[in-house]
From TrEMBL:
Organism: Monodon monoceros
Protein name: Uncharacterized protein
Record-linked PANTHER family: RING FINGER PROTEIN 17
Domain of life: Eukaryota
């Protein structure tokens, strides 16, 4: 009796089956796109007229500071979205790895049982 371990496992989450090969391709980390120009345009629109206006303390708001703060907030928001997606992918990967580990463990136990039976039969036949 020969026991084989299937290395091309499938994991079936609630929403359907994901094959291991395509799953690993989907696990590539998401990268932030460079949106600095879009942020600058948005900040420019927000700061129109601020150069000539004054705050309650009589200081002039610096448009470049507003632009930098807007860019920073937008980049942080984008980074948080990317981190959330990456966390979801890592959670799925953990479930897949747990499934593969458990299945491999079960197959190993089964293989050992078959191997022990074959050795017992071999020793019994040699003794007789």
């Amino acid at each position: 009796v020969v026991s084989t371990i299937n290395t091309k496992q499938e994991y079936c989450p609630i929403d359907g089956c994901i094959k291991e090969d395509s799953f690993m391709e989907k696990l590539q980390p998401k990268k932030m796109k460079n949106c600095s120009q879009d942020f600058k345009k948005t900040a420019d629109l927000l700061t129109v007229g601020l150069e000539h206006s004054t705050s309650t303390h009589g200081t002039v708001l610096n448009p470049s500071t507003v632009i930098e703060e807007t860019e920073t907030v937008e980049e942080i928001d984008e980074a948080l979205k990317v981190a959330g997606k990456n966390f979801e992918q890592l959670s799925i990967a953990v479930k897949v790895l747990e499934h593969i580990y458990n299945q491999t463990k079960e197959e190993t136990v089964s293989f050992i049982e078959v191997l022990e039976k074959q050795f017992d039969q071999l020793f019994t036949s040699l003794d007789s």
